[in-house]
Design goal:
mainly alpha; 2 helices; 66% helix; flat
């Protein structure tokens, strides 16, 4: 993915989130939850786009019995 596509995608997500926050009436707590979910999704998407999460399956987690 090129840097331009990444930047355009982030701008579109930001504008859409701003439009939802500005023009759709909802409770402040619901808006806060929506914002947190979108930010977490974008951060996870960015981490996977840059390959940070690409090798997450290689981590060995011990089993608890």
């Amino acid at each position: 993915m090129s840097l331009i596509n990444l930047l355009i995608t982030l701008i579109v997500i930001g504008v859409l989130l701003w439009l939802v926050n500005t023009y759709i009436p909802m409770d402040a707590k619901i808006k806060q939850i929506l914002n947190v979910v979108v930010v977490i999704c974008v951060v996870v998407w960015l981490l996977s786009a840059f390959g940070v999460l690409g090798h997450a399956h290689d981590i060995q987690v011990p089993q608890v019995r």
